[in-house]
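Tokens in:
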């Protein structure tokens, strides 16, 4: 039974979860349970079913030793307590003398775990299988081949004990059942292995224990009657310790030599178990500190490594068994020649992750590229075989390249992850700006590569390496140039998703690097499912299952072309049940910083008579998200019958809702200047719209926008903050818009030419303000200009008469401001005609005492003001 190993399911990290077993610790004497010793214990609160516990008290009793432990990690602020009883002192001593090996939580590889499972759990008796005990079992349904199972029934029989188990985690709603029979003669726990934490950070050391004290390998105590030797392998808090007390330890050199030989055999055994579980930054240096016979294990262990983390983080991580800074130091110091030798051994590598500092995305980028390109293809026959040693050491015996690399790259995933570091840690960084190695003469092939994730702008340099990646399905990136991304994905024949954020035809530039399909062939993009945020594209046929569209503001009737382009993309490239989302983007600053939708789109000649489901959904979504609704008048409105709409346009218009609309505007198209006397178009589409329940502002700036403004005014809410008229709006159109609002509405401010070009005094800005249909108006602000032919005195009289007409005819008026760009002569005339204190109407008084020649009328908290801006 010596050398048997027994395991309970130990919850481990994602990388090690399927690769670790816990060795039973039932045959321990008092000396094995010193305070501070750490053991794996079955936990009732930890999610993974096991907890690493630390001994804090050892109490010998007649029946054995009682060991008290606490979990190292607290759950909800409480460290779970444990208690176990060990064998008596005499039994413990007997176990120590036998040279048994004891282990807790020894990590093993997937392959080893599959091979050792039967041995690990074969020598158990009924007492080892109490209900609730958890074991790792070989699974036929779990993806990783192993399942953590829990004992729910133990049934003794004549032929042995039948143990019934169920998987802890269900697969498709079913907990996999297990059953095993344990013979009666296997009721005692076999010798075991022990893992201890020495905490000194060294990878390999020898300890002599004399009595109860430990001394290092360079210290000896020949007077000791009993001693044991411990060899520690690992780093940080994870160490494997082999404990042995060879017979005849104090009987002279022959016994010592036998002990050393026996110890070396144990070291070889332990290394064979843990070698495949060590990260490269631990495994490579360790291979130099072992005996020559053991060093060959590196060659056997390297192909079993499937995941590689090039990590700048300083925190401990059970994925890689890192000590605080060792991994970062290793990657920053290792020469590229040694990287190539190491990578040539990693024939099983499937995932590689660069965990880079947040502000240095290319940290150790040369190491990453070298590993990827070295694993891409076997070395040439004339290339020297890769060595297993560190810089400055001699390699092993030469091997043929076929013995080192038997197949092409198995790499499936290249991932990039950002790590936030402190300022002090950032100062310790090296290798953050080194150039990448020159590209290979022959483009490397990565036949198994399927995904590149987390890439940022600086990682776009990978596109210049010329990699051939026929199986790439997913590329997630931010900030790459269009041409670089296009070159990077051009070799793929399996592309399903490309992340990115571009507008217009730039997506077409990405895919133009991909060869066109032959007639009748599906083409390289036949599997494309999603391409980030798109507007137009080409190259795939009814394969997109997901499409995210960001639309710029639909500025006028010509915007129908953009919408129809996306509609064509959906019809040609998307599956019938594709998930499609549409989002409006803010407009340019000079137009509006709001999400806009222009109603003139309904008058476009290309408006479909039978719009698709996507077309209708897109318009409804864009209008629902819009904060500004506009109608842009162009030459098209004067030459086409916009008062006669298609039934499709009417049907869609009736379904639109404007819950987020804050402002409503009538603009003129850029460069459109209607001739004097041109008719004003009547856009009938507005009549079919629902009201604007939250619209607070109405703006009319087009000289022929009166009828459109009138129709929109009828849809406004009851309380309107501002109504603004541009310079070109005629007095009669302004009057019609205000009357359309109706007497039941209230308007805070009416602005006439104040925020834009001033209105000429001869165009009647002061006329037409008396109407019973006007809404209540609180403030009126005007910006006026004086023509050169108008005498200053005549202009002053016209302004005085206009002010009198407005303050006497507008209901609810509290303030009138007239801002005139005028000469000094006019300033003198207006002050003479309207001195401070002049009464206007019943409630207003003029005040010209301000620096700006403000004429304010104050009575009953109401004001009429005049401001003149001096021009020479």
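Residues out:
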């Amino acid at each position: 039974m010596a050398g048997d190993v027994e395991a309970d399911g130990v919850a481990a990290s994602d990388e090690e979860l399927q690769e670790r077993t816990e060795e039973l610790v039932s045959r321990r004497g008092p000396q094995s349970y010193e305070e501070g010793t750490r053991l794996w214990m079955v936990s009732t609160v930890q999610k993974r079913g096991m907890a690493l516990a630390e001994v804090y008290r050892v109490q010998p009793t007649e029946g054995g030793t009682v060991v008290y432990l606490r979990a190292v990690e607290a759950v909800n602020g409480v460290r779970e307590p444990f208690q176990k009883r060990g064998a008596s002192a005499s039994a413990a001593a007997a176990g120590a003398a036998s040279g048994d090996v004891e282990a807790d939580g020894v990590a093993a590889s997937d392959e080893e775990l599959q091979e050792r499972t039967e041995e690990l759990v074969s020598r158990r008796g009924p007492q080892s299988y109490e209900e609730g005990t958890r074991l790792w079992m070989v699974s036929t349904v779990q993806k990783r081949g192993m399942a953590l199972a829990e004992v729910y029934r133990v049934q003794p029989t004549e032929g042995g004990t039948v143990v019934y188990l169920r998987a802890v985690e269900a697969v498709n709603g079913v907990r996999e059942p297990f059953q095993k029979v344990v013979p009666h003669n296997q009721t005692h726990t076999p010798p075991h292995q022990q893992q201890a934490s020495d905490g000194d950070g060294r990878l390999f050391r020898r300890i002599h224990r004399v009595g109860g004290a430990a001394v290092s390998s360079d210290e000896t105590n020949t007077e000791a009657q009993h001693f044991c030797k411990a060899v520690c392998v690992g780093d940080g808090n994870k160490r494997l310790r082999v404990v042995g007390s060879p017979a005849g330890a104090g009987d002279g050199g022959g016994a010592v030599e036998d002990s050393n030989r026996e110890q070396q055999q144990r070291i070889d055994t332990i290394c064979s178990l843990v070698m495949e579980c060590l990260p490269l930054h631990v495994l490579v240096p360790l291979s130099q500190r072992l005996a020559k016979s053991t060093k060959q294990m590196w060659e056997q262990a390297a192909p079993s490594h499937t995941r590689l983390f090039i990590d700048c983080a300083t925190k401990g991580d059970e994925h890689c068994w890192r000590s605080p800074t060792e991994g970062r130091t290793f990657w920053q110091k290792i020469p590229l020649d040694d990287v190539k030798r190491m990578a040539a051994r990693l024939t099983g590598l499937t995932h590689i992750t660069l965990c880079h500092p947040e502000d240095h995305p290319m940290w150790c980028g040369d190491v990453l590229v070298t590993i990827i390109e070295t694993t891409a293809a076997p070395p040439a026959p004339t290339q020297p075989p890769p060595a297993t040693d560190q810089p400055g050491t001699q390699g092993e015996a030469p091997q043929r390249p076929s013995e080192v690399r038997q197949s092409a790259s198995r790499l499936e995933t290249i991932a990039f992850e950002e790590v936030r570091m402190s300022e002090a840690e950032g100062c310790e960084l090296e290798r953050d700006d080194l150039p990448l190695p020159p590209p290979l003469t022959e483009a490397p092939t990565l036949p198994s590569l399927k995904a590149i994730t987390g890439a940022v702008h600086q990682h776009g340099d990978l596109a210049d390496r010329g990699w051939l990646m026929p199986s790439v399905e997913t590329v997630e990136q931010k900030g790459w140039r269009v041409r670089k991304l296009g070159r990077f994905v051009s070799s793929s024949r399996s592309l399903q998703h490309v992340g990115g954020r571009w507008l217009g035809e730039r997506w077409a530039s990405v895919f133009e690097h991909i060869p066109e399909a032959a007639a009748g062939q599906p083409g390289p993009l036949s599997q494309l499912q999603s391409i980030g945020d798109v507007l137009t594209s080409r190259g795939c046929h009814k394969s997109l299952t997901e499409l995210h569209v960001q639309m710029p503001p639909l500025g006028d009737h010509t915007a129908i072309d953009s919408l129809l382009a996306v509609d064509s993309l959906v019809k040609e490239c998307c599956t019938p049940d594709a998930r499609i989302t549409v989002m409006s983007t803010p407009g340019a600053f000079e137009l509006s910083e709001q999400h806009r939708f222009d109603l003139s789109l309904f008058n476009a000649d290309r408006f479909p008579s039978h719009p698709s489901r996507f077309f209708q959904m897109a318009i409804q979504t864009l209008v629902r998200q819009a904060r500004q609704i506009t109608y842009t008048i162009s030459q098209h409105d004067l030459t086409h019958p916009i008062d006669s709409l298609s039934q499709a346009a009417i049907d869609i218009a009736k379904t639109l809702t404007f819950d987020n609309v804050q402002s409503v505007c009538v603009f003129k198209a850029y460069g459109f200047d209607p001739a004097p006397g041109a008719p004003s178009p009547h856009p009938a589409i507005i009549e079919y719209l629902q009201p604007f329940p939250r619209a607070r502002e109405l703006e009319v700036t087009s000289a022929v926008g009166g009828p459109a403004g009138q129709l929109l005014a009828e849809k406004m809410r009851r309380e309107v903050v501002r109504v603004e008229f541009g310079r070109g709006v005629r007095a009669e159109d302004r009057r019609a818009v205000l009357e359309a609002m109706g007497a039941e509405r209230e308007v805070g401010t009416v602005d006439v030419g104040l925020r834009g070009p001033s209105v000429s005094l001869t165009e009647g800005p002061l006329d037409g303000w008396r109407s019973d249909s006007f809404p209540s108006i609180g403030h009126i602000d005007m910006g006026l200009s004086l023509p050169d032919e108008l005498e200053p005195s005549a202009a002053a009289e016209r302004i005085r008469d206009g002010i009198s007409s407005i303050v006497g005819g507008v209901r609810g008026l509290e303030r009138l401001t007239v801002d005139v760009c005028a000469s000094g002569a006019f300033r003198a005339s207006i002050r003479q005609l309207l001195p401070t204190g002049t009464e206007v109407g019943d409630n207003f008084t003029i005040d010209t005492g301000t620096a700006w020649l403000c004429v304010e009328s104050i009575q009953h908290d109401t004001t009429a003001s005049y401001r003149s801006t001096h021009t020479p």
